From TrEMBL:
SUPFAM superfamilies membership: FMN-dependent nitroreductase-like (SSF55469)
Domain (Nitroreductase): residue spans on this chain: 33-187
Gene3D superfamilies: NADH Oxidase (3.40.109.10)
Full protein name: Nitroreductase
Species assigned in the record: Pseudomonas lutea
Length: 273
């Protein structure tokens, strides 16, 4: 139980008197320090970085070793600009020196089956789509941990799903492949550093033996206050978390095109049985 552990816990939960963790390790220290980075410096990326991050990504768990994911590394400014336009014109996609687009990729197994003249009857089921989505997510998070260990920062871009057909066209994706999310990568700007954003208290997310929502009201009320204080310190509108959740999800229009995902996935060759 070190002073570092206590400080990291205080930042992670927005609670100055948070208890330190035990056991503790350098890896846990790194994980608790995670923050989204939306401003990047002009420092160039080191040679071999992409290959290093993909090796880390491929070391993540993958269901039945199917490895039904791929990733496109985008560095051309013009292509990043077009992807930014497809993802709500988020400026940090253009600014970051590297932009990954993580893919659920069932096309590779489809090609292998075709070579063997075998029909993959399980392919059109929702489970197969979930396999690719989960595999891509696990791989990407491994890459994030790796890049943060090297002093880099990143931010996930869910808005890459605003127009998955447009992204597929831009990246030349075949059928049975869809973009799950993007990831901006670069060295964090010293002038606009990202901050560790407090998370829900463990009482809201940790259940022992069976699920119980009994502690939830008090935990959420506490978090509303702590997150509001964090936003106020950062000069942002000091909404509590509850208000943020409701505002984000109360209208399908807030999905910004993602309400059409089922139709788009069907046109891209995915079955959803």
């Amino acid at each position: 139980m070190t002073p570092t552990s206590q400080a990291k816990m205080a930042a992670r939960y927005g609670e100055p008197d948070a208890s330190p963790l035990a056991p503790w390790s350098d890896t846990i220290d790194l994980l608790l320090d995670h923050r989204s980075v939306r401003a990047f410096s002009s420092e160039p990326l080191p040679d071999g970085l992409i290959e290093t991050l993909i090796a880390a990504a491929q070391s993540a768990a993958t269901s039945s070793n199917l490895q039904v994911w791929s990733v496109v590394a985008v560095q051309e400014p013009e292509r990043k600009a077009r992807l930014s336009a497809l993802a709500g014109n988020q400026a940090y996609i253009r600014q970051a020196p590297l932009f990954f687009v993580w893919l659920a990729d069932l096309s590779r197994v489809s090609r292998i089956a075709a070579q063997q003249d075998v029909e993959l009857q399980a392919l059109p089921y929702l489970e197969s789509l979930l396999l690719g989505t989960i595999d891509a997510s696990l791989a990407a998070q491994n890459a994030v941990v790796a890049l943060e260990s090297l002093g880099l920062g990143s931010v996930y871009i869910g808005a890459i799903r605003n127009d998955i057909e447009g992204v597929a066209k831009e990246l030349g994706l075949p059928a049975h492949v869809y973009p799950v999310f993007g990831l901006c990568v670069g060295y964090p700007s010293a002038e606009l550093p990202g901050k560790v954003k407090p998370r829900l208290p463990q009482a809201a997310v940790l259940h022992h033996e069976t699920y119980s929502a009994e502690p939830e009201p008090a935990a959420v009320a506490d978090y509303d206050q702590r997150l509001g204080d964090f936003y106020q310190r950062e000069g942002m509108k000091a909404n509590g978390w509850s208000e943020q959740v409701v505002n984000r999800l109360h209208s399908a229009a807030n999905l910004h095109g993602r309400e059409h995902l089922v139709d788009q996935l069907t046109r891209m060759g995915f079955g959803l049985r």
